[in-house]
Amino acid sequence: MTQLTRLLWTRYGLTVARDLPETTYAVLGLLDMKPASGYDLAAFADQSLGYFWPISRTLVYRELDRLESLGWIRGEPVPQQRLPDKRVWSTTEDGRGALAGWLAQPAVPTGADRNGFLVKFFFGDRMSPKTMRALLDDYRESLEATRAGLAALIEHLTGVPDGRMGRRSALHGLRTAEARLAWIEEIEAELAETSQLPPVEDTDRYGELELRDGANPSNREARDTA
Fold first, then answer.
1. What is the C-alpha separation between 24 and 103, in angstroms, rounded?
2. Across-strand partners of 86?
3. Phi and psi of 74, rounded to 5°?
4. Which of 30, 76, 86, 204 could bond to 37 as cystine, CB 3.0-4.6 Å?
């Protein structure tokens, strides 16, 4: 195996490498589930882990290079008609041992999720009611799309033997989206009681101009014509 210096200790007979990001093991685990080319692996990651651990296509290829250098995966060239040959990656015995070692360790907390909605909502007292309405509407729309996607994934995986854990993971995401949608309804009721939220039919999505753009009407005109 290459880069043996990165393998620092063993526990319960399972080799574990320190100082590797969780994404390295996530990619390794996906390949252990199903050998794939880099292109197909990126699609697989997006349709499975992507709901709770997004991995960009660029990062997938970077991790493939890392895993190959560690000796944890190997690539087999596969000829294609009318397309360049591709490499299909699969785990090695050392890779499967490293994956088992990582799975045997306690999960490392990743800290609080970065949420672009909440960082704006936190400053809600400095928003106009119309801006708050637009912010909540956008968040609801995003969550409803996530809920629909996860519900479809769960339905697709139901009854698939190899999809049981994927279905259960998606169910976690579905319940989280549902809880957040319920939170929006609760917050809307609170804000309506204090006149901090206009009725839906009165919403002007550019109400934030009162605070963001000041008294310059040209900003409104530019956005309306964009």
1. 13
2. 78
3. -135, 150
4. 86
Rounded-to-10 torsion of CA 121, 127, 128, 131: -50
CATH 2.10.270.10 fits 4-103, yes or no: no
**Identity of the residue numbered 54:** P
Q: Residue 180 and residue 122: Cα distance in Å, rounded?
A: 16
Q: Burial letters for 168-191: b for 16+ Cβ neighbours within 10 Å, e otherwise?
A: ebbeebbebbeebeeeeeebbeeb
The residues spanned by each domain of the chain are 4-103, 116-224
Taken in order 60, 62, 65, 67, is the CA torsion positive or negative? negative
Q: What tens digit of pLDDT does each residue of 150-201 get?
A: 999 999 999 988 889 999 999 999 999 999 999 999 999 999 888 767 765 5
1 in Cβ contact with 70 (< 8 Å): yes
| Residue matched to tokens 């956008």 | 138
